[in-house]
Design a protein that fits this description.
Layout lengths: L4 E12 L5 E25 L2 E13 L9 E4 L2 E5 L4 E2 L6 E8 L4
Antiparallel strand pairs: 1-2, 1-4, 2-3, 3-7, 4-5, 5-7, 6-7
């Protein structure tokens, strides 16, 4: 299976700052090869605001720790993972993620 794209998987982390306070933020976890396919792009106009949404699938080698609690960064855009990874061929070697664009228009 060809995996021509490079993605970054991000995890939500907590860390202490210089004042001893806990800060929560997204951090790059790993970079991986993947096959990214755009499924749908839509635009809605309501209340004088334009809202765009991009849906895509990301196929990559299985990572047992990967859940919908992570998110994907690809080509400067951030995508939330919509559900659990799906085993695409029944072998557990590759999984597919349904993702939605988090960047607002």
């Amino acid at each position: 299976m060809k995996l021509p794209h490079r993605i970054t998987i991000q995890a939500y982390t907590e860390s202490g700052n210089e004042y001893g306070e806990t800060e929560k933020d997204w951090a790059d976890y790993i970079t991986a090869f993947a096959n990214v396919r755009m499924i749908k792009a839509t635009e809605n106009f309501s209340a004088d605001q334009e809202q765009a949404r991009v849906d895509l699938t990301v196929r990559l080698r299985n990572r047992p720790w990967l859940t919908a609690q992570h998110r994907i960064k690809w080509k400067g855009n951030i995508y939330e993972i919509a559900g659990p990874p799906v085993d695409v061929d029944g072998t557990g070697r590759f999984v597919e993620l349904a993702c939605h664009d988090l960047n607002k228009a």
